[in-house]
Amino acid sequence: MNIILIGAQGSGKGTQAEMLAQAFGIPHVASGDLFRKEIEEGTEIGRKASTYIDRGELVPDDLTVAMILHRLQQPDCIPGVLMDGFPRTIAQAEALDEGLRVVGKQLDTVVYLQVPRAELLKRLSGRYICKAHQHVYNIYSRPPKVAGVCDQDGSELYQRSDDVGEAVARRLDIFFTQTIRLLDYYGKQAKVVEVDGNQGITEVQQALADAIRVQLS
Predict the structure, then answer these.
(1) Which of 83, 84, 158, 182 is within CB 3.0–4.6 Å of 30 for a Cys-Cys bond?
(2) pLDDT the model gives residue 36
(3) Domain 2-216 CATH (choose: 3.40.50.300, 3.40.50.150, 3.40.30.10, 3.30.420.40)
(4) Which of 106, 99, 101 is nearest to 64 (CA)?
(5) Is 13 an annotated catalytic residue?
(6) Catalytic residue list contains 36
(7) Per-residue model confidence (pLDDT) at position 87
């Protein structure tokens, strides 16, 4: 079971991906989390990637594809995987298809979490992440019990550099002009389902799980 969850920054994709991965018993592989780990560890990939991420730009395909394909070769991904944040371009999608084909696998479904741009901007202005384990909160829809403190581990909450200022608008522009083209690419493979992401977290979770089960049946 190999699934891709597509959604713009602020769509709730990361939160939903974690819950879906648990529900289906497969690992959640998020390109953003992998890059942040590389950056925190000061690796060569991390140093190169940070210059793009801080500007709200896409990391070059060669760095991203190599990192993702390496992750997919790990033992815990054998039963399947739920990918979030990758692919973002047609070139990355083609590389992923080829990488899966080489090991006798393929994508089963691609789910698009659809949220209007105006709502995305509002959500992003209120999004905060915990420093310890990247738990996500939003002061509008999912606030922490204590302002500025993670409910789960007590670490400080912060706003990512690509969630503020011009970087936000730039990333949304990239999504709606480039990443959105993936829907056509995977649509030709009859693998795309769309879910209304402009609902409550629980409602979106149920709609996503139902859509995936229908697509896989």
Answers:
(1) 84
(2) 86
(3) 3.40.50.300
(4) 99
(5) yes
(6) no
(7) 92
